[in-house]
Predict the 3D structure of the following.
Amino acid sequence: MEKMRMESMDIVAKNVEKIEKLFPDCITEARDENGKLQKVVDRDKLLQNFSHKIIGGGYSGTL
């Protein structure tokens, strides 16, 4: 019987990896609270890729 790993999956890191595969230009590096470099999503660059397909919170059903 296989033992369960007692560590939680880093879902955010996996999501960043997925975004990197689709939009590599939207990934950059930043230091975490411990000073370690980590990959992060550049929100503004990501939004630019969808600028014509993003709507605000007040969507009424018509554009």
In short: The longest strand covers residues 27-31. The mean pLDDT is 81. Residues 11-50 form one domain.
